[in-house]
Amino acid sequence: MKNEKIQAPKGVREYLPPESRGFEWVRNQLIAPAKLAGSQLMELPVFEDTSLFNRGVGESTDVVSKEMYTFEDRGGRSITLRPEGTAGVMRAVIESNLDRGQLPVKVWYSGQFFRAERPQAGRYRQFYQVGIEAIGVDDPALDAEVIAIADRGFKNLGLKNYRLEITSLGDNESRAAHRVDLLNYIKSLSLDEATTARAALNPLRLFDDKRAEVVEVMSKAPLLLDYLSDYSRNHFAKVQEYLNALGVAFVINPRMVRGLDYYTGTTFEFIHDGLGAQSGIGGGGRYDGLMETLGGQPLSGIGFGLGVDRALLAAIAEASLPEQSFNADLFLIALDESAKISVLKLAADLRIEGVTVEVSFGDKSLKGAVKGADKSGAQYLVVIGSAELESGLVTLKRMNDGTSISVKMSELKGALA
After folding, report:
1. Cα 374 to Cα 201: distance, rounded to the nearest angstrom
2. pLDDT tens for each residue of 269-328
3. Which residues are bridge partners to 398 per DSSP?
4. Are 250 and 281 spatial neighbours (Cβ–Cβ below 8 Å)?
5. The Aminoacyl-transfer RNA synthetases class-II family profile domain covers which part of the protein (predicted)?
6. Does the chain have fewer CB atoms within 10 Å around its N or its C terminus?
7. Do residues 59 and 273 lie in contact, with contact meaning Cβ atoms separated by under 8 Å?
8. Residue 251 φ/ψ, nearest 5 degrees
9. Which of 3.40.50.800, 3.40.640.10, 3.60.40.10, 3.30.390.50 would CATH assign to domain 330-416?
């Protein structure tokens, strides 16, 4: 109907004031360690050619087979809203030849991602992540640094009730040896047709199946950690050595596979037990074959994606979210129309100097405008009328105790400091 109220799409989590202050704080704290480690911003489109995710993420994954928002654009092209960040970053690195320069390429990104999942607390169809990618160097020390950056992000939030789980998914030699025995084991099971077909594409996917009956039968399946080549075993041992040196606590989870097919070698996930079923707050790993799969050089890479939505829920659960208030430094009130231009100009000048200034609008009475200043949480108040304009002096009032001083308008910034 014409006047029917329009609502946000189902499964979309919106952040509005004042809650958005906490969301912004969490996002900034999570990405701060990456900036300190030399990562630079990469802004990417929220939609890509569908083939990028089919090839990069893997057709055996739930992400590709069940969860992508895919549509045909006006030009008849198949387009998908990004379900994750790494494939898009790799496409951009290849396309812009960043991999031909200084290595590793170290970038960070943040924004919305999209998966057509059943909405529940902590699981949304539009969700927010921050992530980093380090591309072009195969070094266990780099693996450890990437993991430590994620760990520091969660520590920045004051989180304590989480754990880091790590494993190695090995190299091609490791996975080939393991695949033979794993497929033989799976053939001995009584699985439904869809699960059998999924296992044929990537048998490791069955370790990620959450159905109780599949979890039970896979509990006796051969583990990839027992098939690691000498190279993969030594690489994983070095990662653990470096993590211990950095003071990053971890446990080894030999059944971890993550939800994306491109992972190889070091793989990790952060789990928070205070969030119920949606306990994963972030994770990542190495993806040594992804660039070549997408048409680039055979270079290695490692990265992570951290869930801002879930990290915020974890901070709330642990009561580590600080009070987030927006308090302007100064609230300006114009007593009459003749003072409005001067008030607007004064506000603009002070903002250029880095002062947060709010202005009363709407021709309210003085009493109503002062009430608005009080509600805004501003620290100081100045009222300007014809007398103030003529003398060049204003009364600077401190809102919390009513203390007032007379100040020249030209010296307001210094007085506030």
Report:
1. 63
2. 999 988 987 899 999 999 999 999 999 999 999 999 999 999 999 999 999 999 877 788
3. 380
4. no
5. 26-329
6. N
7. no
8. -125, 150
9. 3.40.50.800
Secondary structure, 3-state, the chain: CCCCCCCCCCCECCCCCCHHHHHHHHHHHHHHHHHHCCCEECCCCCEEEHHHHHHHCCCCCHHHHHHCCEEECCCCCEEEECCCCHHHHHHHHHHHCHHHCCCCEEEEEEEEEECCCCCECCECCEEEEEEEEEECCCCHHHHHHHHHHHHHHHHHCCCCCEEEEEEECCCHHHHHHHHHHHHHHHHCCCCCHHHHHHHHHCHHHHHHCCCHHHHHHHCCCCCHHHHCCHHHHHHHHHHHHHHHHHCCCCEECCCCCCCCCCCEEEEEEEEECCCCCCCEEEEEEECCCHHHHCCCCCCCEEEEEEEHHHHHHHHHHCCCCCCCCCCCCEEEEECCHHHHHHHHHHHHHHHHCCCCEEECCCCCCHHHHHHHHHHHCCCEEEEECHHHHHHCEEEEEECCCCCEEEEEHHHHHHHHC
Cα separation of 320 and 237, whole Å? 34
Neighbours of 349 (CB within 10 A): 15
CB 295 within 8 A of CB 328: no
Residue pair 107/41 in contact by the 8 Å Cβ criterion: yes
| Token duo for residue 357 | 């200034």
Distance from C-alpha of 207 to C-alpha of 210, rounded to nearest angstrom: 8
Q: 273, 318 in Cβ contact below 8 A? A: no
Domain range annotation of the chain: 19-171+229-317, 330-416
pLDDT-derived band at 1, boundaries 50, 70, 90: low
pTM of the model: 0.90
Q: Answer yes or no: are the C-beta atoms of 182 and 222 closer than 8 Å.
A: yes
Determine the CATH number of domain 19-171+229-317.
Answer: 3.30.930.10
User: Which of 153, 114, 162 lies closest to 28, judged by CA?
Assistant: 153
Residues in the chain: 417
Task: Quick: pLDDT tens for 218-234.
Answer: 989 999 999 999 999 99
Query: Residue 145 corresponds to which tokens in the numbers above?
Result: 């640094």
